[in-house]
Amino acid sequence: MARSTLLARSAAACLALATLSAPAFAQSDPLASLSPEKKAFLSDPATLERFGLTPEKLQIALAGRPAADVDAYATALMAVVEDSKYKAGRDPAEIALNPQARGWNASTVVRPKMFDKLARDDGPFSLKRYMFQKGGIPTFADAPVAIRKEDLVAGKVEVAFVGVPLDFSSGWRDAKHAPMALRGMDGLVGADADGGVDPGLVLSIADYGDLTPDYMAPDRGLDHIRAMIAEMASVGVVPFIVGGDHTIMFPDVAAMVDIYGAGKVALVQFNAHADAELNGDHLISDNQTLTRLLEQNLLRGSDVTLVGLHGRDAGPATQKRLTDAGAKIVPTTAIQEKGWQAVTTDLIAGLKTGPENVFVSFDMSVLDPGDAPASGRPVPGGITMREAIPMIRQICAQTKVVGFDLLDAAPILDPTYVSRMSANYILHACLSGIAMRKTGATPVQTAKR
Amino acid sequence: MPSINAISGWGMAAAAAASAVVAGNSFDTPNPPPPLPQEDIMGEPKPIDIPADVMAKLSGIAPEKVALIKEGRTGRYVEKEALFGRIRTMPTAELTAYIDAIAALHAQVEYKEGRDAKTIPLDTRSAWFNAWKAKRPLVMDPKRDAGPMDLGRYIGGRRGGFATFAGAPVAMTPEDLKAGKVDVAIVGAPLDMGSGWRNAIDGPRAMRMTGGAGGNDMYAMINPSSALEIVDYGDIAIDQNSTERSVAHVREMVREIAQTGAIPIVIGGDHSLEYPNVAAAADVHGKGNVSVVHFDSHYDVGRNGVHWITHGSPVYRVLHEGHVRPQDYIQVGLRARGPDLETFG
Predict the structure, then answer these.
(1) Cα distance from A246 to chain B (closest Cα, Å)?
(2) For B48-63, how does the pLDDT look when each residue is reduced to its tens digit (9 = 90+)?
């Protein structure tokens, strides 16, 4: 009895203390004692946001602190801002490489035809032994193999798959294995039941193998990838690039611009992430790809459409910056609310007012993780395959798609077949669209079934 | 025990706390490191003997191009006997064009000053260039005494629901380690640049969330968690797009632990981390005063690649820079497709 009384008393005392001190917190401004410079620094909401603070949180952190402590707080945060800047002499401005290395360019120099051990005529060649073989040596879409530009030309190849196994996702990594894993999975062959075409029959398709990135640096080697993809496009091929992390969108789009001209290419980016971050310390990485494309004037903001944005990096400030630059944003919620068909019709109508040439970039994160757990940067609540397939098919059927990439598939994250098959069905949807555009086929009408 | 001010950075210590936000490259992990001596460069082509009849056919070819053949440098492009066969049978004009093509290809493959960038430039314009390794000012948290922070709520047990290495309390600064007389600091370094499957980024997190690192050892009948002061020192900042930049910072941080007398246990992260870890040990204990026992299926003495450090080359860097003497380096369990006879010498 006595004990509980004691507890009650001390509780009451605590309460009284709290009541006493609360008004004192509210009334005094802890920033009042600061110099004008420091006060301005801690009063800027953008600065506070960078530190995970709001004016309210700052008040709580500084309440009741002596003036010297508040000054120390401001000094320390200002030091973070100052020290985060590059400083010559303290911070290396570049990463040194070893020029002594033998065969420096060996992995990116294409073997000239005259150094082939055995002669063969130009053109895509099959790796199948049997006329009607399934399986065997895996290639994209079971397509014949092309090694050099001459093979693409001789075969009048219209669509060529090419892998770029760059593995620098800022989420989980394994995009390196995506080209191999997708070659080894079904779903890229045969007729499109809803599109009414068999793209493998209608189109001349080749597997152009993989391009070499630098596994130790995303920044290095992109020029080679850009040049190789531009070379594919230069002979009339629509490159289907299988990444690789989202960094690859940079050389992909840049290559299209190299061939079709600046201001002549529109980008449709299916991606949960905007990949438009600012203030990176590297000159390229997956989460700043769009920033760099815009900054280098390879794309105009008004020629960018972002579909399925819903990642944590797509905050209001980023969205505003992009829409201010002219970009169109089709969030996942819009697809849910209006339906894929209405959204796609609008989207295509928008594309018709811009450049004729369209590049579609499909980051696996745009899909719901239920349909594609093997995404390097998955975001729950994504679009479904039932939405994605017809959207992609229709965009590829009704606009002049000059290139397509599928990025940031990380097969190690999904021991089942689901992600790999989803990825291949997305690629097949665009192949079907291109085949429909070529043949004039129209989608199979539901009412007639 | 250090004063509260020293650990919290409040008040008079504000200036000191501010200056330590970015340690920079004060102890210079070399960028680039010293060049390789010629004898360490393996896999160089060996000179070949050119038969007299082939030499005769090459009489009209420029000497520097013939030298490429003699030095064995053409082997990358065409096998020796096949080359001889072509030289013997080709008409002179065609032969000249063929040898020119080999020379041109060789020039394209090898490094050329001015044409090939020997550095990867960074974006120094960025206002947040060092943000990846900027330390959180201690003043942003409530004042506390220096020392390992117990995350537990109850009298029994220490973990309180928060996953730490070995269920240990948390330390954030060298002052915490000193104040707690810490014997062992376990620290994560989630560098994710392995050349096989990547996901070492999840190594530290996964091991914090999995039991097994604390408790009694039935063979030795000792409980290290009781016998030693162990802390979880958090993770070291990593630039996931550059092993080179990451290892420089890892070295600073591992050294910071070792300088307090605590034994650093580093949870990677890929194997390139061996280099900054061992270099940091040598920074504290002296070059040549550290030996290494290295359990691995891989040899990891790779060298003379385009990149100065990868997870295949930490051992070379450790030996080449003199942190450890070769006779003090022991490898256990090698069995991967690694070195050939020449490399083992």
Answers:
(1) 13
(2) 999 999 999 999 999 9
